[in-house]
């Protein structure tokens, strides 16, 4: 894996992680019932922008791993005051892996269908794993009804929004790349250095704010 791809993974993974930490903190802090929906929609948008530049298998999963690591570090920094929600990390990785699988098979064909399929696959994979494999107690107590509600409500809301926004994001990303407004950030030394500095800055901010 070359430096350009590694920088892209770190850049887009960090953007997703920032969303999970800061937007997620606001949404969960407000006790919103479907807080995961906007977070997943942001994730789909970030993954789609990343795919415009790096359309290869494994990249979306690696981006999800980077985002999960960002959130894990932020949660660990505040471990004394707040619980460590490992289930959130599993949800991030499940959505990234599902996106990777679906869009590796579809390519750029039918992006709306791909967004819907990736969303449902990610939600189903997460719910089954957390309830029946890792047996996280709130999900075990909720049983199949909780799994169905999560996939049916959260998954459907995310799928509808993703089905609209992913094709639009794909077009926007392609237009920006055609004009080299974004691709330069990963291909030219100076803009790439700026992108790397931004990644480092966001990790530093995440740690400082968490602490």
What does this structure look like?
This protein is mainly α and 211 residues long. The chain has one domain (3-210). It has 8 helices and no strands. The longest helix is centred in the C-terminal third of the chain and has 42 residues, at 137-178.
Write a concise synopsis of the structure shown:
The chain has eight helices and no strands. It has helices at residues 3-29, 36-53, 59-77, 86-106, 111-133, 137-178, 184-187, 189-210.
Which runs of at least 5 residues are low in confidence (pLDDT < 50)? none
Mean pLDDT: 85
Helix content: over 70%
The end-to-end distance, rounded to whole angstroms, is: 33 Å
> What general outline do the C-alpha atoms trace?
globular
**N-to-C order of helices and strands:** HHHHHHHH
Major β-sheet profile: none
Kindly estimate the percentage of residues that lie in beta strands according to DSSP.
under 5%
What number of structural domains do the residues give?
1
Report the radius of gyration as a whole number of Å: 17 Å
Computed structural class: mainly alpha
Figure out the total of helices: 8
For the structure shown, list the relevant keywords.
single chain; 211 residues; mainly alpha; 8 helices; 83% helix; globular
Outline the fold blueprint.
Blueprint: H1 3-29, H2 36-53, H3 59-77, H4 86-106, H5 111-133, H6 137-178, H7 184-187, H8 189-210
Helix pairs in contact: 1-2, 1-3, 1-8, 2-4, 2-6, 3-4, 3-8, 4-5, 5-6
């Amino acid at each position: 894996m070359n430096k350009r791809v590694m920088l892209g993974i770190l850049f887009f993974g960090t953007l997703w992680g920032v969303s999970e930490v800061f937007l997620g903190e606001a949404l969960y802090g407000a006790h919103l019932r479907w807080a995961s929906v906007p977070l997943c929609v942001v994730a789909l948008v970030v993954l789609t922008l990343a795919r415009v530049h790096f359309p290869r298998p494994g990249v979306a999963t690696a981006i999800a791993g980077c985002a999960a690591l960002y959130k894990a570090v932020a949660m660990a920094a505040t471990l004394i005051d707040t619980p460590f929600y490992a289930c959130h990390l599993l949800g991030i990785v499940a959505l990234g892996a599902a996106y990777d699988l679906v869009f590796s098979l579809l390519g750029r064909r039918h992006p709306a269908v791909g967004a819907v399929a990736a969303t449902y696959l990610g939600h189903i994979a997460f719910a089954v794993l957390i309830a029946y494999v890792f047996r996280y107690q709130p999900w075990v107590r909720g049983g199949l009804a909780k799994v169905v509600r999560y996939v049916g409500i959260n998954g459907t809301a995310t799928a509808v929004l993703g089905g609209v926004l992913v094709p639009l994001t794909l077009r926007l990303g392609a237009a920006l790349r055609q004009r080299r407004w974004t691709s330069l950030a990963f291909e030219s030394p100076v803009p790439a250095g700026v992108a790397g500095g931004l990644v480092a800055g966001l990790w530093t901010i995440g740690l400082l704010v968490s602490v």
